[in-house]
Amino acid sequence: MNHSAGVRQRVVFRSDDVSLIKTMVHQDVGIALLTDLAVTPEDHLQLIRLTDPGQPLFTVSLVRRQNQLTTPMQRKVMRALIQAE
To answer: Would you list the domain boundaries of the chain?
Structure first.
C-alpha cells in the first residue's frame, strides 16, 4: 500500500499481539490495518473501510482434516471465510 501511494512510513513498533495493538489504537498511540474478524463492538474503535479501487487483495487458505472436530470459534471463522468468497 505504501509503495503504490508513494509513501514511506516510519515503523517504530511491531507486534503480533492483536489485543495490544487494539488497545494502543484505542488510546490514540497509533493506527492499524485489521480484518473485520479482529474488531468487536467492545473494542470501541473507529473503522475506516478501504473502498477505493486498487486496494490490496489478501488470499486466505484454510486446510483441515476431514474428520477434525472443530470448536465454535473455528466454525465461525470457517463460515466467515466461506461467505467472503
So the answer is: 2-83
